[in-house]
């Protein structure tokens, strides 16, 4: 006898952005203008202004922030890092990551709610524009918005995203280059043109449609909470001891004497940008934005009860215990952060006044000359960190190695960077297996001298 297999009944809510039937649950969170919202708004506007002006800022003749992929140079607050400076680069990134780990262990996902570009731009730029354009239809869902307003919103979102993508490109090639490219033909810089439109499209999809799903589905940082956060970390939590059992009705009457302070108004859910109910406990979707705190505090003020039913606290504090700041993970993160930062400072302080690196020249490996010699192009970058101009000479150390031109020298101004391109001529008999070693000595005649090694390519 065959038994009938009944389909599984899904829970009421699998994801905060998903309806039980599998369709998208469109969120239109209300705005609660409390004390935390005002502080986040000030910080958000500051970060947005900083993002737009930082590419234009110069520190000591260097950009404040630049990730020059083509020239393989990363500039961080006026300090240039080369890929060959392995210890410096590792120390810089370890300092950043361990700082985030320590911040998360102490204060939970506070980065997401207060400083993450996704939250900052969505909550303080794109959503305010959406509320302004859609008007009263905003809270009723996309179906209630007229086509004209939808098209206007997409146009405004597109223009904002286009500006931000140009600013993003400025962090790689510089703002003056972006401005020059913007006034020229796209065929002259197809790579930059493609990057701008690709980033614009991604931003438009993200902030117009994907939105909070970036935090709840795509971003790995929320999932790291389980490893970085413990019961002593500061999170946003609901005080169940004080709030339960929840129920509607005026407090202080005989009818509501057995009820807690939560009047079940669900305003904390209505304002949540990720659509969760904070009363269900700590959840991966919570970005610590404090909107629920502001909403609950406003309700407590109206009904004459103390604030803090929803508040920043550790899970131990919410359970009636005490919070321990000093614990194994915070000690380990702190020690690692100090070691990485001290290492960074030490190697920064011991850097030479001149940094020389060998750059690759693509598509021109070598050339066989009429006399049988092999010519290899070489490209050097010389960065002068000294306060005065210096003249550098370049000579090969091996016998039989010649350069074209024969005399190689270049003057580099204070805080400047110059590139020197030349050819090294070697007899074909020097090559073994298609390779030959090259050692160059670079000096300024005033105490600085360094050796660089490179492998020349030639016939097998």
Write structural notes for this entry.
The protein has 14 helices and 16 strands. The chain has helices spanning 35-53, 86-107, 110-114, 117-134, 147-173, 175-183, 190-210, 213-218, 225-228, 240-243, 267-270, 291-303, 315-318, 328-349, and strands at 58-59, 62-63, 65-68, 73-76, 79-81, 235-238, 310-313, 354-359, 367-368, 374-384, 390-396, 402-404, 408-412, 417-426, 435-443, 449-457. Helix content is 39%, strand content 18%. It has three domains: 35-218, no CATH class; 230-318, no CATH class; 354-457, Immunoglobulin-like (Sandwich). The protein is elongated and about 105 Å long. By secondary structure, it is an alpha+beta fold. The model has no long low-confidence stretch (mean pLDDT 89).
How is the secondary structure organized here?
Layout: H1 35-53, E1 58-59, E2 62-63, E3 65-68, E4 73-76, E5 79-81, H2 86-107, H3 110-114, H4 117-134, H5 147-173, H6 175-183, H7 190-210, H8 213-218, H9 225-228, E6 235-238, H10 240-243, H11 267-270, H12 291-303, E7 310-313, H13 315-318, H14 328-349, E8 354-359, E9 367-368, E10 374-384, E11 390-396, E12 402-404, E13 408-412, E14 417-426, E15 435-443, E16 449-457
Antiparallel strand pairs: 1-2, 3-4, 4-5, 6-7, 8-10, 9-10, 10-14, 11-13, 11-15, 12-14, 15-16
Helix pairs in contact: 1-4, 2-14, 4-5, 5-6, 5-7
Please report the distance between the alpha carbons of the first and last residues: 77 Å
Number of helices: 14
Instruction: Kindly give the count of domains.
Output: 3
Coarse structural class:
alpha+beta
Question: What does this entry show, briefly?
Answer:
With 460 residues, the chain is α+β, with helices and mostly antiparallel strands. Helix content is 39%, strand content 18%.
């Amino acid at each position: 006898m065959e038994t009938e297999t009944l389909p599984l009944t899904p829970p009421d809510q699998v994801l905060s952005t998903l309806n039980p039937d599998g369709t998208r649950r469109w969120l239109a969170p209300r705005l609660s203008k409390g004390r935390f919202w005002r502080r986040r708004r000030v910080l958000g506007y500051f970060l947005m202004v900083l993002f737009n002006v930082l590419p234009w800022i110069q520190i000591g003749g260097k950009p404040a922030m630049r990730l020059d992929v083509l020239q393989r140079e990363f500039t961080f607050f006026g300090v240039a890092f080369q890929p060959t400076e392995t210890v410096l680069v590792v120390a810089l990134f370890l300092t950043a990551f361990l700082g985030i780990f320590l911040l998360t262990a102490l204060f939970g996902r506070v980065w997401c709610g207060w400083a993450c570009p996704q939250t900052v731009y969505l909550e303080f730029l794109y959503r305010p524009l959406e509320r302004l354009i859609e008007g009263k239809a905003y809270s009723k869902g996309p179906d209630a918005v007229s086509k004209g307003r939808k098209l206007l919103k997409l146009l405004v979102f597109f223009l904002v995203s286009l500006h931000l993508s140009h600013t993003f490109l400025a962090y790689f090639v510089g703002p003056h280059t972006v401005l020059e490219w913007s006034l020229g033909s796209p065929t002259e810089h197809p790579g930059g043109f493609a990057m701008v439109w690709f980033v614009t499209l991604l931003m438009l999809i993200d902030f117009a449609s994907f939105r909070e799903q970036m935090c709840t589905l795509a971003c790995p940082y929320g999932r790291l909470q389980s490893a970085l956060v413990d019961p002593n970390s500061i999170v946003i939590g609901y005080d169940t001891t004080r709030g339960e059992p929840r129920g509607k009705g005026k407090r202080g009457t005989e009818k509501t004497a057995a009820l807690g302070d939560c009047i079940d108004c669900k305003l904390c859910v209505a304002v949540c940008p990720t659509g969760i109910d904070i009363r269900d406990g700590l959840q991966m979707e919570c970005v610590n934005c404090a909107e629920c705190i502001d909403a609950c505090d406003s309700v407590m003020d109206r009904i004459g009860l103390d604030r803090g039913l929803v508040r920043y606290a550790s899970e131990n504090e919410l359970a009636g215990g005490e919070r321990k700041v000093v614990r194994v993970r915070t000690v380990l993160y702190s020690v690692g952060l100090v070691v990485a930062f001290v290492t960074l400072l030490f190697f920064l302080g011991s850097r030479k006044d001149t940094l020389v690196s060998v750059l690759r020249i693509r598509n021109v490996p070598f050339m066989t000359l009429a006399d049988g010699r092999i010519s290899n192009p070489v490209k050097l970058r010389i960065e002068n960190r000294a306060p005065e101009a210096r003249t550098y000479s370049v000579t090969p150390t091996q016998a039989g190695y010649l350069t074209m031109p024969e005399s190689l020298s270049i003057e580099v101004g204070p805080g400047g960077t110059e590139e020197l391109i030349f050819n090294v001529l070697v007899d074909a008999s020097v090559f073994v297996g298609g390779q030959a070693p090259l050692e160059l000595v670079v000096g300024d005649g005033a105490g600085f001298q360094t050796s660089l090694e490179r492998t020349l390519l030639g016939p097998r």
